[in-house]
Amino acid sequence: MADVAESLERASNGGRLSLDEGVALYREASLHDLGAAAHRRRLQLYPGNEVSYVIDTTINYTNICDVHCSFCAFFRPEGHPEGYTMTHEQVLARVRYAVDQGATQIMIQGGVNPVLPLRYYVEMFAAVSREFPGADLHSLSTSEICGIAKREQMSVEDVLVTLRAAGLKSLPGAGAEILVERVRKRISARKIDDDRWIEVMRIAQRLGMPTTATMMFGSIESDDERVLHLDVIRRLQDETGGFTAFIPWYYVPFNTYLKGREASGLEYLRVLAISRLYLDNVAHLQSSWLTPGIKLGQLGLLYGCDDMGGTILEEKVVTLAGSRNTASRADLERAIRQAGFVPVIRDTYFKRRDYPLATTA
Ligand code: SF4
Questions:
Q1: Contact residues of ligand 1, CB 6 A cut-off
Q2: Residue 6 half-sphere exposure toward CB, CA atoms < 13 A
Q3: Confidence band (pLDDT; 50, 70, 90) for 92?
Q4: pTM as predicted
């Protein structure tokens, strides 16, 4: 336990953990010690007592997908009666609703729909950018990008350059799940592999597009594999510096082929804390309310997080898997204040935006 105490002390002051030390901390440190060290580090990095959040929406423009991940309750195969693809007008109507609520971040994300051409995305992003120039298009997973590249027989780089010219500004880290081959083969065998996910992110970051990184934990991975995932992110960040934030969330098993159980609240807090300590080179750590609920999300602010994600005005993927949580701006701000912090609104790139609550709450 002496080693654990020394590792905690070092990491809480910004020192780097080795992979073995990270695994040992994750497994052996008490939750209180882990959380206290992560919180200490968070306060060193952000002494101003503020917690940020973004006003955003997630528009799931199509649920047709040919990847068939076993943990996903959202997708429908081609030809399924419940399959849908939104028209550009339908997408624009949703963006308009979100912008009217103050949204600046627009996440348009869906299945890997094999029939949609690059033109569909170019025209959609161009229309959103034209009509809503103040909105930041933070959209498409690495899997969707690769799906477009495959359909059009183009390189990922050419697809990204084309989409960026149409208005896509940054990529969310979706589709990472756990970046360990054994896990991906079991939960999403037809999805792009871990090396490909890293490669797409590397290309986007080299092109100057900011990205976030995510982790979906709690399916079939081991404790070691959770820390291995953090190690993959940390190594790419050492190389590119292109990740703005890390967002862990846990698998919701209801209505899925994979089934299983939800991670506990204690596991969620433990993952947040080890993420803050291990990812010494990623600036922001996000506590979420979408799967854990707002009370646990609030507690996450004392386990290393400096950000509370977004309002997510519309979302279907985890909702269909059984998550029933909702949160308004007022709910988020109340939760942040109750935890002893001052809520501030940010944009996708963690720049502060002013948007008084009274105008929309
Ligand atoms: S997680 Fe994404 S890629 Fe996998 S089946 Fe669902 S929509 Fe398709």
A1: 65, 67-69, 72, 74-75, 111-112, 143, 188, 191
A2: 5
A3: very high
A4: 0.94
